[in-house]
Amino acid sequence: QVQLVESGGGLVQAGGSLRLSCAASGSIFSINRMGWYRQAPGKQRELVAALTSGDSTNYADSVKGRFTISRDNAKNTVYLQMNSLKPEDTAVYYCYADVWTTIRAYGGYWGQGTQVTVSS
Q1: Of the candidates 64, 67, 106, 117, which lies 20 to 30 Å from 11 by C-alpha distance?
Q2: How confident is the model at residue 54 (pLDDT cuts 50, 70, 90)?
Q3: What does R_g of the chain's alpha carbons equal in angstroms?
Q4: 80: helix, coil or strand?
Q5: Residue 66 burial (CB < 10 Å; 0-12/13-18/19+)?
Q6: Is 8 left (phi over 0), alpha (psi -120 to 50) or beta?
Q7: Cα separation of 68 and 80, whole Å?
Q8: How many Å apart are CA 103 and CA 20, to the nearest integer?
Q9: Considering only CA atoms, which of 58, 22, 77 is closest in space to residue 68?
């Protein structure tokens, strides 16, 4: 079993910053890709940012230059630094990881989500 636990969401005014964290634990052999998705009310879940084990990054156009994804491989943790937040960034943010488990199974895992609300 693999668990992803997010933290760091909350309420912030437009222009402010938040830092999300996601720690993976359980029967982990290695983690390939880790990333953040978000889902706003009435909208589909969308990729925000992703980071491979080789440090290749991918960002949604809407967050480029404002958000930064990073990871601590020793802690199996991924972070999302969000600056210059806008009301349209309001959503539930989900952590995602592609994991090789200790029994050599490969799969994608999701966190439970953390709410980010940006007030205007």
Answers
A1: 64
A2: confident
A3: 14
A4: strand
A5: middle
A6: left
A7: 6
A8: 29
A9: 58
* DSSP assigned state of 52: -
Burial of 54 (0-12, 13-18, 19+ CB in 10 A): exposed
What the block records as the tokens of 11 is 């309420």
Of 28, 36, 1, give the one whose Cα is nearest residue 114: 36
Q: Give CA angle at 117 (24, 96), nearest 5°.
A: 20
pLDDT digits (tens, 9 = 90+) for 66-89: 999 999 999 999 999 999 999 999
Residues 39, 92: contact at Cβ < 8 Å?
yes
Please give the Cα distance from 73 to 75 (Å, whole number). Answer: 5
